């Protein structure tokens, strides 16, 4: 219901979706209702699946819950947007086929393995499971450039240690072998001599990675690095500078295995935010740094809309506010949470991280930003499929404008200077909606 209500304003406009749906563990103690026992879901199963709905297996019920939500999320996603879905071994093998169906297997980008924990396992009988999965799909893969992580200062110090005398904006460099491995197909044109510093020639044992022209250009630009190997001969390597020629720092592609941040970090952060609460606030929250890392993979858009329809404790909102605080961006978030802690926990957490929290001696300054809080109102349609007049004229006008496909820029209010019945206007078309809530309306000659 909440996702449907977003369609008129946000269809095709959401840049990034992150969801952490129920994992269907069968563990009734979870804050998520993994057994799908919520009355609304039960009623939905009975209406949509039929009388046999309550006899479905656990996995079928979970898929019945997920499928319509994923269909709606696909509609909300922008053409250059991407969705991330957290899941574990209970449902990953069932989730991936429906994501392939809805988003297209050709738009699957990666099934990341997230190492979620650095310890535990005392209760495990066989092996210690310390990972989950994050499935990433694009709306249209061709509209997303290569994934890239922002510069890592620690990596700069760890890997880019060498410098040369060349005056350059490119900073320090590291070296990589120019000699190709056996994984590369044999090519005769990649076998040629390269002159070494002492005037001798260096031939590869197999072949070089680069063409002769590229290697000669690199040699001329002092972009090759020569060192003596253990046999006294020369090894040829190429320099990979920290920055590109225009001074922009080199970015790195994300690995398919994400080592942290860990669940323990998310739990500690939540305890810190709710320092004045007694007892467990929320079990196994995702760390905000994990969501930030996923956001960073996408092409940077400081105006992006980020959606999380299984909001839980509100981690995604904190990640967005943190990103805005870091680069003065204006990203917006939309959270949806159906459980009764939406106001007392989810919204409260976002309020605290935005405005600040903690005791005076350990106070954490707020990230800034704010949000509006909404609940689902009256349905647009009654059970008999007639429009529900109780929602008011404004809501009915907005729905009809959306269902008729009137572009948002062409829509008008009832207070426009032409007619209270005008719904939309451009140079080619005027849309007229004849509706009076207090009397019957008909297309008569007077109208």
Give structural notes.
It is a single chain. The protein is α/β, with parallel strands linked by helices. 28% of the residues lie in helices and 17% in strands. The protein has 11 helices and 16 strands. The chain has helices spanning 2-10, 39-49, 58-76, 92-103, 153-159, 212-220, 263-273, 288-297, 315-327, 342-355, 393-403, and strands at residues 14-19, 77-87, 108-115, 131-138, 173-177, 194-195, 201-202, 224-228, 234-241, 257-259, 305-308, 332-335, 356-357, 364-365, 422-425, 430-432. The strands form 5 sheets. The chain has a 7-stranded mixed sheet with strand order 10-3-4-2-1-11-12, with helices on both faces. Strands 5-9-8 form a 3-stranded antiparallel sheet. A two-stranded antiparallel sheet has the order 6-7. Strand 15 (422-425) and strand 16 form a beta hairpin. Helix 1 packs parallel to helix 3 (58-76), helix 3 (58-76) runs parallel beside helix 4 (92-103) and helix 9 packs parallel to helix 10 (342-355). It is globular.
Low-pLDDT residue intervals, each spanning 5 or more residues: 28-35
Spatial order of the strands forming the largest sheet: 10-3-4-2-1-11-12
Overall 3D form? globular
Radius of gyration over C-alpha positions, nearest whole angstrom: 29 Å
Q: How would a textbook summarize the main sheet? A: 7 strands, mixed
Structural category: alpha/beta
| Number of distinct helices | 11
Provide the helix percentage: 25-40%
Helix-strand sequence: HEHHEHEEHEEEHEEEHHEHEHEEHEE
Kindly report the average pLDDT value: 85
Alpha carbon gap, first and last residue: 36 Å
Number of strands: 16
State the assembly state of the protein chains. Answer: single chain
Q: Determine the strand fraction and express it as a percent band.
A: 15-25%
């Amino acid at each position: 219901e909440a996702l449907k209500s977003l369609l008129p304003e946000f269809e095709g406009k959401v840049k990034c979706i992150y969801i952490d749906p129920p994992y269907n563990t069968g563990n009734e103690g979870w804050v998520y209702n993994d057994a799908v026992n919520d009355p609304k879901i039960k009623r939905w199963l009975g209406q949509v699946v039929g009388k046999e709905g309550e006899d479905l297996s656990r996995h079928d019920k979970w898929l019945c819950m997920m499928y319509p939500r994923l269909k709606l999320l696909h509609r909300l996603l922008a053409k250059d947007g991407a969705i991330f879905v957290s899941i574990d071994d209970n449902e990953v093998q069932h989730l991936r086929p429906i994501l392939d169906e809805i988003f297209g297997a050709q738009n699957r980008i990666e099934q990341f393995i997230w190492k979620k924990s650095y310890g535990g396992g005392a209760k495990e009988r066989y092996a210690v499971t310390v990972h989950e999965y994050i499935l990433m799909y694009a709306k249209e893969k061709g509209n997303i450039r290569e994934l890239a992580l922002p510069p890592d200062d620690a990596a700069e110090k760890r890997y880019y240690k060498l410098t040369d005398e060349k005056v350059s904006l490119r900073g320090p460099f590291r070296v990589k072998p120019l000699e190709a491995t056996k994984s590369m197909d044999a090519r005769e044109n990649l076998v040629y001599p390269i002159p070494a510093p002492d005037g001798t020639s260096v031939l590869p044992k197999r072949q070089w990675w680069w063409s002769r022209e590229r290697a000669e250009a690199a040699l001329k630009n002092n972009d090759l690095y020569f060192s003596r190997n253990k046999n006294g001969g020369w090894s040829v390597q190429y320099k990979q500078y920290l920055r590109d020629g225009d001074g922009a720092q080199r970015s790195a592609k994300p690995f398919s295995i994400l080592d942290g941040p860990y669940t323990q970090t998310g739990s500690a952060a939540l305890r810190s935010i709710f320092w004045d609460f007694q007892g467990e606030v929320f079990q196994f929250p995702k760390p905000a740094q994990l969501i930030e890392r996923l956001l960073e993979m996408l092409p940077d858009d400081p105006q992006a809309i980020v959606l999380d329809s299984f909001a839980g404790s509100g981690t995604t909102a904190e990640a967005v506010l943190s990103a805005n605080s870091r680069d003065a961006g204006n990203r917006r978030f939309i959270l949806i949470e159906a459980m009764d802690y939406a106001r007392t926990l989810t919204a409260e957490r976002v309020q605290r991280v935005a405005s600040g929290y903690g005791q005076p001696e350990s106070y954490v300054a707020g990230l800034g930003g704010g949000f509006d809080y909404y609940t689902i109102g009256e349905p647009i349609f009654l059970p008999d499929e007639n429009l529900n007049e109780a929602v008011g004229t404004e809501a009915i006008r907005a729905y009809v404008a959306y269902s008729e496909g009137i572009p948002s820029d062409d829509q008008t209010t009832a207070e426009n200077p032409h007619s209270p019945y005008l719904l939309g206007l451009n140079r080619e078309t005027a849309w007229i909606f004849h509706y009076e809530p207090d009397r019957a309306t008909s297309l008569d000659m007077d109208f």
